[in-house]
Design brief:
- The protein starts with 7 loop residues before the first strand and ends in a 13-residue tail after the last helix.
- It has about 290 residues and is of the alpha/beta class.
- It is built from nine helices and nine strands.
- It has helices at about 15-30, 45-50, 65-80, 100-130, 150-170, 205-220, 225-235, 250-265, 270-275, and strands at about 10, 30-35, 55-60, 85, 90-95, 135-140, 175-185, 195, 245.
- The chain has one domain (about 5-265): NAD(P)-binding Rossmann-like Domain (Rossmann fold, 3-Layer(aba) Sandwich).
- The protein is globular.
- The strands form two sheets. It has a seven-stranded parallel sheet, with helices on both faces. A two-stranded parallel sheet has the order 5-8.
Length: about 290
């Protein structure tokens, strides 16, 4: 296990919210951090306090694959290696599925999914060469199930989860670990600075009203520092899990949705099994 004082982090979306909390926790532990964000201005205080020997702030748009590769190369040149990579950059596009424009839908996937893909591709050659490292993908409670208003956001996180399961299987032989962190609610600015909205259709007005009432009654988010504490425990583990739920709400939803799926699969088991009867390939198949 890499000792705390030896670790070098690469964190995207590091200027605010969870990314900022991860950055501060790593620095407090004596680690060194490459903090990447579209706007690195909010990191000036940390840069002044720690200096570039401990903190390198890099402006980065994760949707730009060429820029991502250049940023990772600069990070390795600066600190000599990477140990922990946290794909945290992302935002929330809220709206009913029918309301999304093509531009809005693609933008959501470009940041939340493709951004993490580009970073993962960029860091893997460096991690493989050292046969060590830990890629931490910040997923979401939205990856545990689909909910009204967050369909495209959930789609981006579901895609990230599928990608990361495969990535974990591919990278394991090189000593590289992958973990999906699935947070519940935190006071991060996701619903303010990290939020875009669709143009509402009148057909969904009643549903929107019901949802807003539910959100108002049940919104109890936590401080990002609690998520950072959990991630510090995660990266210190000699046997980190593929998935880590953060918060009771995320845990309870994961249990409920999994149990509901199991119940449905068992109820339809006969139909599922009847749809399979393996036979040799038909003559001429594939020609």
């Amino acid at each position: 296990m890499t000792t705390s004082a030896d670790r070098v982090w690469f964190i995207t979306g590091a200027s605010r919210g969870l990314g900022r909390a991860f950055t501060e926790a790593a620095l407090a532990a004596g680690d060194r951090v490459v903090a990447a964000a579209r706007d690195i201005g909010p990191l000036d205080e940390l840069t002044t306090a720690h200096g570039e020997r401990r903190l390198l702030a890099l402006p980065l748009d994760v949707t730009d694959r060429t820029a991502v590769i250049a940023a990772v190369d600069r990070a390795v040149d600066h600190f000599g290696r990477l140990d922990v990579v946290v794909n945290n950059a992302g935002y929330l596009a809220m709206g009913m599925i029918e309301e999304f424009t093509e531009e809005q839908a693609r933008a959501q996937l470009d940041t939340n999914f493709f951004g993490a893909l580009w970073v993962s591709q960029a860091v893997l050659p460096h991690l493989r060469a050292r046969r060590s490292g830990h890629i931490v993908q910040i997923s979401s409670i939205g990856a545990l199930g689909g909910f009204p208003l967050t369909g495209l956001y959930s789609a981006s996180k579901f895609a990230l989860e599928g990608l990361s399961e495969s990535l974990a299987a591919e990278a394991a032989r090189f000593g590289v670990r992958v973990t999906l962190v699935e947070p519940g609610g935190y006071w991060t600015g996701l619903y303010t600075k990290g939020l875009t909205m669709t143009e509402p259709l009148d057909a969904y007005a009643e549903l929107r009203t019901e949802l807003h009432e539910q959100f108002a009654e049940g919104s109890r988010d936590s401080l990002p520092e609690l998520a950072a504490d959990a991630v510090m425990k995660l990266v210190a583990s000699d046997d980190p899990p593929l998935r880590l739920l953060l918060g009771s709400l995320a845990f309870d939803i994961a249990m409920t949705t999994t149990e509901a799926r199991l119940e449905t699969w068992r109820a339809w088991e006969a139909t599922s099994r009847a749809a399979e009867d393996a036979v040799p390939a038909p003559e001429g198949y594939g020609r």
